[in-house]
Every structure is written in C-alpha cells, then in structure tokens.
Amino acid sequence: MTVAIPVLASSSANAATCTGTLLCNGDFEIVTPVAGTDEVSFGSWTSSDPSGLRAGLGADGKGNSAEFLFSTNTLSQALTTGLGDRYQITFQYKSEGGQGLSAYFGDARIFDYIGDSAPPTGWTTYSFNVQAFGSQTILRFVADSLGAAQNIDNVTVTLCPTCTPSPVGNLGAVIDRTKTFYTTDDAAGTGSNLSGTRTLTFDGGTLRPGTPGALGSQGQPVTLVLNVGSAGGTLDNAGQNIALAGRIINTASSASPFTLTGAGQGTIASQITNLGTLVVATSGRTLFSSAIDNASGSFVLRNGGQASLTGGLTGGSVAVENGQLSVNSVVTAPVTVGAQGTLRGTGRVAGATTIAGTLRPGNSPGTLTFTGPVTQQAGSSLVLEIDGAGTGNGAGNYSRVIVTGTGNAYTISSGVTLTPVLRGLTYAAGETAGTNSYNLTLGQRLTGVIQAEGGVTGTFATITQPVAGLPTGGRIVALYSANSVDLYVGAASYAGLAGLTGNQRAVGAAVDALEASRNPAAQPILNALIPLGISALPSAVGGLSGEFNANLSLAATDVSRGFADMIATRQGGLHGAGQGWQVWGRAFGNKARTSSDGNNPGFRHRMAGGMAGADIGVDNGTRAGIAVGYADSRVTGRQDSGRASIDSYHVGGYLGWSQEALFVDAQAGITFSNYETARTITTGIQVRNAGGDTDGRSVGAGLEAGYSLDLDGIQLTPSAFLRYDGSDVDGFAERGADAFGLTVAEDAQADLRAGIGLRLAAPVALDNGGTLVPELSARWEHDLSTPGNSISQSLLGQAFIVQAAAPGRDTAVLGGGLSMEIADNMRLSARYDAALSDNRTQHAMTAQVRFAW
Question: Fewest CB atoms within 10 Å of the CB: 98, 167, 202, 236?
C-alpha cells in the first residue's frame, strides 16, 4: 500500500490553543519539521521513533493528524491530573490496514484495536471514561508491527466528575463480574488473558490464581498493576502463597471495598494508592512491604485478617475491626482497634489510637511506639510478653508501649485488663528465638512497660496472672506513676506471706481488701509495698499495723495500778494508828518491760511521779483518807513500733479498818490521762512519721484483808486481795502520714486480779528513841480476766484488729523496804518492788515522808 505524505496544514506559528481540555495540541496543528529530514514533532507530544511519524491529513480533511508509518512507535504526553479525578478521553482513529494500535491512560489500557479483514478505513470516534490515580498521568498511543499507516486526531481529555469509569471494553484484562470468580487462565473479555496483561481492572468480581505461582510466589513476584474502580472487587489467594509487584490503585467504596481474602500468605510489594476502602481478610498473613498512600482512604482488617506493614502507611484511617495488624514501620494515620482486633508490631503509629480490643506490642516481646494519644477503652486489654529483663525485641526482652509527644497521654478506661504472658511466645522472623522458659523472681521490676510523655491516667481493672513463670507466692502487680507504669513481681497476698505474726496478717488482709476494692487512695500504700522483696515485706507490713497503739490501754492500767500501790503501801502502815490527822507525800519511779508474745513486739514503760494524801482516824480502828497524784510516762514500743508520752492525774480515796490483828483496807480512784503518740512507718527506703493525741480515763478499786501476827518481835502479816482496773482511751486519727495514717477506735479494757501475800517486818528501837523498821514482802497475783488487749483500727476505712502484747496471767511480786521514825510526828520510808511474770518485768522505787498530829 502506498502512503501519501501530505503537505503540512499548519505550523507552530498558527498553533491552536489548549483551552477547555487537559491536552495540548490534540488536533496536531502544532507541527515542527525536523531540518534535513522528513520527520516532524507535534508540540507537547513525545515519540519513541520520530522517523516513523508523519503529519497526515486531519479528520476534517483540512488540518493535520498524527500518522504512524511502518514501525513500532509510541506517541505520549504527560497530563497534570487530580488524584482520584475522573476524565473523559475522546479521539478519532483511522487505519489503512496494519496489525494494531492501542491506547493507555496511565497503566490502564483503554483501547486495543487489532487489524482484521475490514479495518476502519474511515475516521471513527472513540470515547472512554477514566480515573486518575496520581498528580500526573501519561496518555500514550502505541502502534505495533504495522503493515500500513495508522492515524489519530482530535484527542481530548476533559474533566468529567460525574462520569463512571468504563467497566467494559478494551481496558486491559477486566474482571468478568458475571462469573463466580475469575482466574488467571480465563480470557479477559475482548482483551487478552491475564497472563499476558500488565494491567488488570477491577470493577467488581473476584480474581483467583489459576495455577500455583500464577500470582507470584516467595521471591518471585508477578508484576501486575491493579486498577480498582468504585465497585471494588476481591483478590482471593485460594490458599496459595502469592507475591505481587507493580502498583495498586484503589477507589472502591466502603459499601463495596477491594478485599484480599484466602488462607494463603501474601507479599504485596506494590506501591498502593488507596483512595477508597481496602480490606484485608486473609487468614494467612499478608505482608505490605511498599508504601501505602492511604490519602483519603481506609485500610481495614476484617474477618480475622492478618496483615503486617513494613513499608509504611500515610493518610486516611486504619481500622482493625477483626484480625491482627502488625505495625513494623511508620503509620501516619489514626488507628482504631475493634473489640475483635489486635494491634502489634515494633514500629511507630503517628496518630491517635483507640483500642477496644487488644494492644500487644512487639511481634514477639518488643516495643511499639506512638506519637499520638492512646486510649484503651472499657473491656479492652493490653498483652505484654515477657522473656527477659531487656527492652529490645525478641528473646531476652519484655514488651513495652511508648507514647511520645507533649500532651500525648496513655489513657486506661474502666474495665481494662492487663495480661502478662511468659509462655507460648512466638518469635518473629529475624528475631532471636527464646526458649519459653523465663522465670521471674519476687521483687523483680520491669521498668516502664508503659511510658507516656503526656501522662498515664487510670488503672487496670484486672491483671490476669501468667500460668507459669512466677515464683511461689508471687504475682505480677502494676506500679503507677504520673508518666509510666512499672510491673513488679509482688506477693500474691500480703496476708498470706509466710512467717507473719497475727497483727501483720490482720493489716495484710486490710491491704489485700483495699487493693481488691481498687480504692485509688490506697495506691501510695501499694506503690510502697510492691517493690519490696520477700525478706523486707513482713517488717513493712508490720509497720502499717500500728500495733503499738494496742498497748496504750495496758500502759494506762500500769499508771492506775502505780497510784493504787502507793495508796496500798500507805494503808499498810496505818494499822493501829489511832485517831488524828496525818499527811504524807510519796515520790516514785517505775520501769516496766513487756516482751514480745510472738505477735506484738511489746513495749517498755518508764513512769515517774508523786503523790500526796491526808487521812484521819474517824473512830477507834477506822481511818479514811484522800490522795492526789501526778505521773509522767514514756512508753516505747519494741522494734521501733511506736512511742507515747502520757501525762496522768489521779484522785482517790481510801478507807481502812483494823481491830487488834485483823485489818481490812479498801480504796478507789480515777486517773485522767493525755496521750501523745508517734510512730515511724518504714517501707523499703521510704520513711513516714505518724502522730496522734487523745485522752483517756482509768478507774480502779481494791480490797485487801489480812491478819498480823507478832512472833517474838517479828511481825508476820498474811493477806489476800482483789483488784479491779478499767481503762478507756478515746479514739483518734493519726496525722502526718497521709494514706498510711490509721484511724484508731476507742479502746476500753477491764482487768480483775486476785492474790495472796506475806509481809515480814522486824522493828528495831534506836538509841535516840526512834524506830527502824526493815520489811520484806512477797505476793502472788493471778489475772482472773484474759490478759492482753485488742484494738480496732482502720486503714483508709478498711478495719482490722491488732492485739497488744499479752503478759503472763501469774505474777510474783517481791519487795523490800525500810522506814524510820525520826521524830514523834515524822517518819521517812523507802521501798523497792519487783513484779515478775512470764512476759513482763517491772521495777518500782518509792520514797515517802509522813507527818502526824
């Protein structure tokens, strides 16, 4: 066939403009001859073989057309397009025979004509609706194996927002939506089959690999461009492992998304432009190794989908509705994780993240970083894998969540579960595999499992303990601070620690109850106890008990009895004293020690004071008197359990009757006391001081009867007695120790004692007319009530009872004294007594002066 070469209809001097279309010189009126050749160039168009291109006669019979001669050639032009915008492409085509001409808009083949016995020898107009997937798109016409000239003219590309991209026609291989699914072996409509097609267009329908490897395999990806229209479609790996390279451009709507399914694993090395909704629903893991430009699109995991992002994702949104997403690169988008979803990985999420399902940092133990706020919603969980004390990735490390950026907080809503895991760990490719045998030790600290620059708010409702890897009697507990959460291996129960005393178990049970109640006020207490090792916990728990306070009533009884003993000693010297007034004064000092009974460590009591009284003989053999006294006491708990200072004021009365050798003495009194307490609370290296003050009252009454025998100048006096003492200490609240301070309930104690005694005196007449009376005494006392005392206290409203140190029920009192009459109406005396019981000793020194008239 002879091809005529027409004269150029115009030149660049009278070129047409591009007004109204994207295309410049689509009518080919801008023509520039190449000097010394028959070649021409058409303005903004670029030819791969200028020698095979001529200016032919235009479709209107007047202007120019672009004419391809007898060679393989390409004519293309770069168009500035809008990402996701839709356009209409129109051109006219005429063939003088030949084998074929095709047209491409970007990677999509929009036209493919293969010459036949009746080629379109006249000008024919073609029109296609297309969509752009970038800011620049190449429009190109390709002539291949020509046997005759091919002409194109009047090419226009016009923005058409309402146009629907053509779902049929020669758009490369197009998924046939009329079939249940489409495989790589099926014919692609009027195009070629997929194996020979570089571009595949989805507008609904399902694609499966026809044979193994048809959609690539590990290390051998298939280069395939996927254009996905608004009707979406499905890529089903059919249980095969696939690998794709090329590019994926998705504009599928949320109602009909582009979905990846199948049980096989996949590697998507394609760069993805996602303007619509891309759903991963593969039960086998799909690895996205190239960047995903999510633009205004949505990346969604559904139906148990498994995906790993190593190439990054930018823009749009990410939703893990049901499945697992591993972020091993940078995701710059907000991420939501549904109730059935899991977020993992060692990368970084640069967007607000909301977890309604599971956050599980690392691929095995590892760190996941966020540069936006993270919120764990009610019912969600944080799973932390532990395989060592390191903070890297893989074996020997533990998982962490790091939230960076000013104001970016980690928020724990109500009802969130923390689940540490030490067994059944799987290790990601490229990470050192562990043995799944790591064991924690009591007191061990895993620092900063959560770190948030904008703060950590809330606490975990439940910590699910690992099934293995914990020490006996241990559990994992969380320690919260303003910007972090640490994990400690603490005691499973503070009340259940081995080797505790009863008082320690009581307050331990109170702490357990406070922790179970999730009382936020108790957090400082828990924070102080959690880091302690097993050896330090018993003393720390004991320091919380305030067991020293239980001893205050016992000390009050000591004071009351001290005053009573001085009156009893005074009464012992009055038998047969006759009538008339006598006044007396007595100074005393007591030192008592109550040792530990295996529960309370006990206390020491030092007391000093004085007493004065007056009595009168009301008739022959009967005397009545009154006495007042003051005592200053210092009570010190053993093992530094506490201290108290007590100011006591006593008033009492006494009555004695004697007839020859027989006597009966009675007394009663009341003591008013003021208490100031202090104790040191030591938990590890933290020391707090608690103080309190309160008042109390003690009442006492005693009755003694005896018979005095004179054996050749030696007076022998056996006696028996009954003594009641009751003390009442007002309740008070400790101050200065914040949450560690106790509220102490009012404490009342009653004690009833009985006993028998023997006194031996041997008066000696002095040369000056006075009398010196040395004296020895012994007494046995038995406590008719149960010795000791209990007191109710509360720690942040949680009540518990502690016991005072319990002395023995039987006491031996041994004493001796010396009295001397230095004038007719004046007598001096001094005395020492020691009281000995199973758990208690007391030493008393007294001195007295007496005047009579």
Answer: 167
